[in-house]
Amino acid sequence: MLEDTRAMPEDNVAVVRRNQSWSSKPPWAGLLGLAALALCLAAPAAAAPPQPEPYRAHDAGGFRNVLPPGQGTNATPAQIAAFEANGTYPPHTHDQLGMYSNLLYAAQGLGAPQIDDYFKDASFGVAPGGLEGQPYSPRGDVTIERDKFGVPHIYGSGRAGAIFGTGYAAAQDRLFLIDVLRHTGRAELSSFAGGENRAMDESIWADTPYTEQDLQRQYDDAARLHGQQGIQLQKDLQNYAAGINKYIGEICATQVNVPGEYALIASVNPDTNICLPENRWKVTDVVSIGALVGGIFGKGGGGEVANALRLEAAQEKFGMRKGKRRRTTPRRRPRCTASASPTAGRPGILAASPFPTRGPLSQPT
Predict the structure, then answer these.
(1) Cβ neighbours of residue 210 closer than 8 Å, sequence gap 6 or more
(2) Are strands 12-15 and 152-156 parallel, antiparallel or unpaired?
């Protein structure tokens, strides 16, 4: 059993391992004719979706956390209208805010007995009596159930199912938000949500100026650069995108639960309609969001790339031990305010990059 937690949406993910055979189809299988037909007729029914495991199974004795804006969910046009009319919040959009607000005044001297007053239970599994609705299976190898705060607990019969379920739950709760993020990562937010976002696009373009071909190449090169880990990453991205698209397909087929924000911006730009085939999720959308997050953290004080290059240079010159010791010795260094994103033509970061820049970049000051 492997279980992990995520933050957006706040998921509890469990992988239920079963005996599985991953052998490929023999090249002579197509010659078996009637024998193959007989085997198909005699094959057992598909395995049932995995069952959620008991409360606190496989965790370290309980977890606590608090998410001020709440787990939330996509708001429908009716829910947006209700909020505008009378301030009625959609489900789980502020049901943790009270705990967080009160924590501000209780932080000093906070002891173990008071923890439950300011942090909610985030243990693996759903506590008895805490289940909201019924478990559901968007695919045969995954089951999702939600607790009283709306947090999805995801159980996969294997890694693929768990990743698929994570993408599905992310779309259930954050579809419009992640759509904004995939456009932001491409410096295309102004074309998606309005021209007032042009300054944001310019900032993103300066840090991570990746073309669509660049994003695809990062995905395609994963296996060559990282071996089995790269292959696994590609499979994960495929399953994650498939989970998002499964949810998009469901809401577009019924037009129920389509996030209301799409209706608000469609009058300005009809191309933003999430139900258009060209707007289905791609693996490059995930890569784009990853580049966005990496650029933000790098520019905000990361410097990991520059630090790694300095360490490598010191170890080449002085040897592994002395180089590490000299690199970690405190020294007064001029503060670098440039982005740590590996972009060609940016002094002091990487001399060369496989990703070409798009247009002139101003030199960092």
Answers:
(1) 186, 218, 288, 291, 355
(2) parallel
Res 218: pLDDT: 96
For residue 360, name the pLDDT band (cuts at 50, 70, 90). Answer: very low
Residue 11 in contact with residue 162, Cβ under 8 Å?
Answer: no
Euclidean distance between CA atoms 14 and 233, whole angstroms: 18
Q: How many CB atoms lie within 10 A of CB 220?
A: 14
CA dihedral 275→279→283→285, nearest 10 degrees, is -120
Residues 183-230 have pLDDT tens digits of 999 999 999 988 889 999 999 998 889 999 999 999 999 999 999 999
Q: Give the distance from CA 330 to its chain's centroid.
A: 36
Please state the domain extents for the chain.
176-300, 303-336
Mean pLDDT of 241-260: 96
The CA-based angle 331-334-338, given to 5 degrees, is 130
Q: What CATH architecture applies to the domain 176-300?
A: Orthogonal Bundle (1.10)
- CA dihedral sign of residues 267, 269, 272, 275: positive
DSSP code of 113?
G
**What pLDDT score does 238 carry?**
98
User: Helix count (H) and strand count (E) of the chain?
Assistant: 13, 7
CB environment 94-109: b (16+ within 10 A), e (fewer): ebbeebbeebeeeeee
- Taking CA 88 as the corner, what is the angle to CA 85 and CA 90, rounded to the nearest 5 degrees? 120
Q: What is the pLDDT of residue 310?
A: 87
Q: Do the bridges between strand 64-65 and strand 152-156 make them parallel or antiparallel, or are there none, so unpaired?
A: unpaired
> ∠355-359-365 over CA atoms, to 5°?
90
Band of pLDDT at residue 14, cut at 50, 70 and 90: low
3-state secondary structure of 188: coil
Residues 6+ apart with CB under 8 A from 199: none
